[in-house]
Design brief:
Blueprint (H helix, E strand, L loop, with lengths): L3 H4 L4 E4 L3 H12 L4 E5 L36 H6 L4 H4 L5 H18 L4 E5 L2 E6 L4 E5 L4 E4 L1 E4 L20 E2 L16 E5 L3 H12 L5 E6 L25 H14 L2 H6 L5 H7 L2 H10 L1 H8 L4 H12 L3 E14 L2 E8 L6 E5 L1 E4 L13 H9 L18 E3 L5 E7 L5 H4 L5 H16 L10
Organism: Novosphingobium silvae
Protein name: FAD-dependent oxidoreductase
Keywords: Membrane, Transmembrane, Transmembrane helix
Length: 454
């Protein structure tokens, strides 16, 4: 066995090459740390699901001015895009363009790293830990020796809805991001989209761009839909970290929204949201998730204005309808599906006949129900556990994973959406880049602080 000092010369293994894993790799390479970035789907390397789309109608939900990959260089993405004025900085560019940006950053970092970085095309299926190192085992039998492992698993596909379990693939698409999900639209008149968030908006736009000329019904429990960004970014006046909690905090935000643009009131919370979440008890957090989360989501996670206008036009034409209700049943009826749901606030069920159903109810967050081999292996070892709200992995404030007994796993860490239970707001680029920035400094022993821009 090699010495403990020799273990420090081993790379950091990052499992997952989407946005979170790629940006962590780039930052570690900038600090001179060796990196092994493991990604099972080479087409999603440096892009992930979010930025791996090939459809130009799928736009970023954040303005170009706030999309730099680096918190110490907020204008980086603008310079890369050659945007120079305020109008261009306000643009919402295609997500596929941002995917190209990320891949270029990774290639550039690898080129400057003098062989300190490697990309491994394979699926991590298990991790073994020794006293001073770890070994990541791959599906093809290969092995990566490393000093620490970071789980950058991104978002998992939605859970197939049990109501649709008996439907054939031609009628039901459980994962809207699966290859070919938006194909085969010929002869289809009515589509049901389950879930009304940003993914649902993407699916509706993809259907329209693909030539679909029929009707779309978007069904969710409350029938809510995301609000739009303003055409020009609101003027956000910084506020101190709010010290109120629960309903008193909600009341303060509502009062401030009445004084300034509501978008500015919500955006002013951005620098403090994670701290606000952490200060609340698990019971208070659960109350937020149960009662307020849907309303927070539609105000916080907004549509690009041009996307909102397209959806409004479809709705005005009668081709797009939003419905609120609870799914009851779905049966094959000829070549179509008969879907029953109970409208919100009513006792009597309604039935609609549809030609295809898309599950856009959001990614699976309860990792106990995820069948990914690496997740199952770490659960079986007792190395990981879900957080109290089943939002992802249980981690501490440094990103170190907690085992089944609550002990800190010093050489097993996590980054990105799987840490949602600890940080809550950790799905957008501005939040993840700051988290990655801090984790890279921790792993590199870089005890200095650069710009922390949001």
């Amino acid at each position: 066995m090699t010495s403990r000092n020799a273990a420090q010369d081993l790379p950091i293994a990052i499992i997952g090459g989407g946005f979170s894993g790629t940006l962590l790799a780039i930052n570690l390479l900038r600090y001179g740390v060796k990196v092994a970035l493991i990604e099972r789907n080479s087409t999603q390397l440096a892009k992930g699901v979010a930025f791996g789309t090939r459809r130009p109608e799928h736009l970023l939900n954040v303005r170009a001015a706030n999309m730099s990959a680096f918190p110490d260089d907020p204008g980086h993405f603008l310079r890369w895009m050659a945007f120079s004025d305020a109008e261009e900085a306000n643009r919402f560019v295609p997500r596929l363009t941002y995917g190209v940006y990320l891949r270029e950053l990774l290639v550039d970092a690898l080129g400057k790293a003098n062989a300190a970085g490697q990309i491994i095309d394979g699926e991590a299926v298990s991790v073994g830990f020794d006293d001073d190192r770890a070994r990541v085992r791959l599906a093809d039998g290969g092995e990566v020796e490393c000093r620490s492992v970071v789980l950058a698993l991104g978002n998992f596909p939605p859970v197939p809805h049990p109501v649709f379990a008996g439907l054939p693939d031609v009628l039901y698409r459980p994962d809207p991001w699966a290859p070919g999900a938006a194909e085969g639209l010929e002869g289809i008149d009515h589509v049901l989209v389950v879930g009304s968030g940003l993914t649902a908006a993407d699916v509706v736009l993809s259907l329209e761009s693909g030539g679909f000329a029929g009707q779309v019904t978007v069904l969710s429990r409350r029938g809510l839909k995301p609000h739009s960004h303003a055409e020009v970014g609101p003027v956000v006046i910084p506020i101190p970290d709010p010290d109120r909690r629960g309903s008193k905090l909600v009341r303060d935000v509502r009062q401030r929204a009445g004084q300034v643009d509501w978008r500015a009131a919500v955006d002013a919370l951005r620098p403090h949201t994670q701290n606000i979440w952490r200060r609340h008890s698990a019971q208070a957090q659960a109350s937020f998730l149960r009662h307020l989360r849907p309303y927070w989501d539609i105000h916080r996670h907004r549509l690009a204005p041009q996307v909102a206008r397209r959806l409004e036009a479809l709705e005005a034409s009668g081709r797009l309808r939003y419905a609120a209700g609870r799914l009851i049943d779905a049966q094959v009826q000829g070549s179509r599906a008969a879907v029953s749901y109970r409208p919100r606030g009513q006792q009597r069920a309604e039935e609609i006949l549809v030609d295809r159903i898309y599950n856009c109810a959001g990614p699976e967050c309860d990792l106990s129900r995820v069948d990914a081999p690496i997740v199952r292996d770490l659960f079986d070892q007792g190395r990981i556990r879900g957080d109290v709200h089943a939002l992802g992995l249980d981690v501490d404030h440094l990103g170190r994973v907690l085992g089944a007994d609550g002990t800190v796993q010093e050489r097993l860490l996590a980054v990105g959406p799987v840490t949602r239970g600890e940080a809550w707001e950790i799905v957008a680029v501005p939040d993840i880049r700051r988290q990655v920035w801090g984790l890279a400094r921790l792993l590199a022993d870089a005890h200095w602080v650069g710009g922390e821009g949001l």
